[in-house]
Amino acid sequence: MKRLTKEWLKKENACCSGYRYFLKLKTNDLKVVFDSLIKDNELQDTNWLISRKLNKKDKIRYAIYAAKKVLDNFELKHPDDDRPRKAIEAAEKCIKSNTEKNRLAAYSAADSAHSAAYSAARSAAYSAALIDILNYGIELLYNKAVK
What we know:
Blueprint: H1 6-11, H2 16-25, H3 30-39, H4 43-53, H5 56-77, H6 83-96, H7 100-121, H8 124-141
Helix pairs in contact: 4-8, 5-6, 5-7, 5-8, 6-7
């Protein structure tokens, strides 16, 4: 069973409201914390926690999954902007072969796609997909996701 502690939250610079939320739960069982956060619609805090608990390779998988969930919506609005698609492809290449060249290409593509994808991240399609994205991140933490 994975645990969450006050010390870890402090070390990771958790926000005050997130820290207080954790104290109010009176549990250190990470799965219970995730279930409570999602039930209480604390989705930003859920994402924050997932992204800090995942290992480096699973963070990339999580980002790829999230980006793919909103890619169609982005491309409908911006059909000539292929930066997010290129970032996804670069990240997938990095997962398969974690060379310095592939990492640099993935970081560069991610930087380029970040601003391009921001509008998609605020779309209704993203909001609808967010719970699915968060659940995928949780599955990665518990090694249940297909890798």
